Input
Amino acid sequence: MSKIRMNTEYRNKLFNRIKDVFEKEETQEQQSFLQAREKFNDMQGYAFDVAKQVVERSYPTEDVNTLRVFKKKYGDPCDVVAKDKCFYFSHSEDVDEDGEKKDTQSHFDFGLFGNLNGRESYSSGEDSMHFAHAYYREELKEKGLNPDIIAQQNGKDDNPHKTKHIDANNKFLGKSNSSYDDDGNIGMTKTFNEPFHLDVIGTSHCRSRAIACTKKEYELFEQWRVAKANVVSKHQTWIDSITKQTDQLKIGLKAYRYLSEGIELATELGIKLDEAELVRTNSTGLTIYNPSNLASMIKGMKNKNQTREDKIKARLNYEKQSVN
Output
């Protein structure tokens, strides 16, 4: 029996099957990422509990309730209470070189797309989006999206391919299209953000209302933000390890002349692939060369007098058989 020559379709199928195994392997890099995500979840709840205590010290619940009564009675002039999920926390327990007290403050955002650098911003930075995509990686993969796009494009200039995948991920997660409209978030972003809103008093942005905390509390908030950034770092390391493997995989598959060589490579990697099954399936994985499907396809080609409706019906029947 003659050997089956390698072609682009076989290379793509082999590449995708092997890459899928690489992504599912329980490697050290993968486990480090999953552990970083779990640690962030623990830190998020703990840090927010402390943030709630700090905020309510500055804006006591009874004052918030009183102002809401005034708003109901007097309207907009007393509309000074709002929900927020990001806060400027500040402490003054450090001293400068002259021994004078100095303020240390930073912006802490508990939202899914919140910043990782301590700077207030109305637009989501790439690190923030990277975190959101990595945090919901499984959900994005399940929908056929690419949650690894930012990691894969690390160090490269922005390009249409990258933008397309980022926009698709953000849309699925329900991120608001408006940089200024946090209330426009829907879906998973809204669900993530909702538990982390607190009542604050003031009509201006949070930059102008630094909330006093202790140095110990401030350091806890910094540790929480480091845990969030670590999710991005560990995800990047994991995807880098997969990219190195797949880059070599592409080079090898491109050099092979026969499908059997690709099968042998998979076997050496501990991946069991069936040559006959690869030949029988098209690029989407549907079996097209079993007798029933092939006969239906050929009959459809021969019948030149079919109506448009008949052709559509035949095609639908063929696709249904392929799936089954």
The chain is about 60% helix and 10% strand. Confidence is low (pLDDT under 50) at residues 284-290.
